From TrEMBL:
It comes from Aerophobetes bacterium. The keyword DNA repair does not apply. InterPro entries: Aldolase_TIM (IPR013785), NadC (IPR004393), NadC/ModD (IPR027277), Nicotinate_pribotase-like_C (IPR036068), Quinolinate_PRibosylTase_N_sf (IPR037128), Quinolinate_PRibosylTrfase_C (IPR002638), Quinolinate_PRibosylTrfase_N (IPR022412). It catalyses: nicotinate beta-D-ribonucleotide + CO2 + diphosphate = quinolinate + 5-phospho-alpha-D-ribose 1-diphosphate + 2 H(+). The gene is nadC. This is Probable nicotinate-nucleotide pyrophosphorylase [carboxylating]. GO terms for biological process: NAD+ biosynthetic process; quinolinate catabolic process. Belongs to the NadC/ModD family.
Length: 280
């Protein structure tokens, strides 16, 4: 991850958490105290994401921070593992602790959940995609965590590609019309993906030879029929399955051999990983 991209995230988060001043630390902890050692420790299993952000937080608060042994983003960890050792001013450790842990817990949670999905579907040649269902203003970090966990990023934002969805179709006045307009006006080399919600709409995908189709909230039997039809009649069209995908049904869907399975839950519903900081 390019650190210059995350500096604003860090400064905004520290400003939010510290406010005008950490009055408890200001009252109790003299700035003249000697540097203290601390370690960031995992309290559960997971896939690490955000360790460079944590390092940058302490370095921002104390430029002379010394870092010891450290795990890397993408490393798997177990409960009790020391993820990062550091030595810094006591004030920096206390001011940076919560913000560093918030980033680590959130991003590692996303990476861990993504990794579980990716492990299930990868034997079938299927890739996990994220969505735009992310925390406002944290999308770049959360999509980074998806990549760390073994997933792929779908659109970063609305300018990243064309996806014709149900509300576009309603406003334009029909699926066939929407596809034709998009193909006519799309910038050169821009891929067009179309979301459909029933088997009747498949004919427009095949007739118009779209680049990618999203099968949204199809039943298992509908998915089976749709994927078979697309593979037989429009082999160049990539297939994405979306809606209602869980860890329990992901393998069953993957066996149908779509190209991608998108899971909004890997960003909007991932539980934070339990990680703590201990002063030594």
């Amino acid at each position: 991850m390019d650190l210059w991209l995350i500096k604003k995230f860090i400064t905004d988060a520290l400003r939010e958490d510290i406010g005008e001043e950490d009055i408890t630390t200001q009252i109790l902890v003299s700035p003249d105290l000697s540097y203290r050692k601390a370690k960031i420790v995992a309290k559960s299993t997971g896939i690490l994401a955000g360790i460079e952000i944590a390092r940058e937080i302490f370095h921002f608060l104390c430029p002379d921070t010394i870092f010891g042994n450290s795990y890397k983003d993408g490393d798997k960890f177990n409960s009790g593992d020391t993820l990062l050792e550091l030595e810094a001013s006591p004030q920096a450790i206390l001011k940076g602790e919560r913000v560093a842990l918030n980033f680590l817990q959130r991003l590692s949670g996303i990476a861990t959940l993504t990794g579980k999905f990716a492990k299930i579907v990868s034997p079938y040649g299927v890739k996990i995609l994220d969505t735009r269902k992310t925390t406002p203003n944290l999308r770049l970090l959360e999509k980074y965590a998806v990549r760390v966990g073994g997933g792929l990023n779908h659109r970063i934002n609305l300018s990243s590609g064309i996806i014709i969805k149900d509300n576009h179709i309603k406003i334009v006045g029909g699926l066939d019309k929407a596809i034709k307009i998009a193909k006519q006006k799309a910038p050169p080399f821009t891929k067009i993906e179309v979301e459909i919600s029933n088997l009747d709409e498949l004919k427009y995908i095949i007739e118009n030879k779209v680049d990618m189709v999203m099968l949204d909230n199809f039943s298992y039997q509908e998915l089976k029929e749709a994927i078979k039809t697309i593979r037989n009649k429009s082999r160049q069209t990539l297939i994405e399955v979306s809606g209602g995908v869980t860890l329990e049904n992901a393998e069953k869907i993957a066996k149908l051999k779509p190209d991608f399975i998108s899971v909004g839950g890997i960003t909007h519903s991932a539980a934070g990983v339990d990680i703590s900081l201990e002063v030594i």
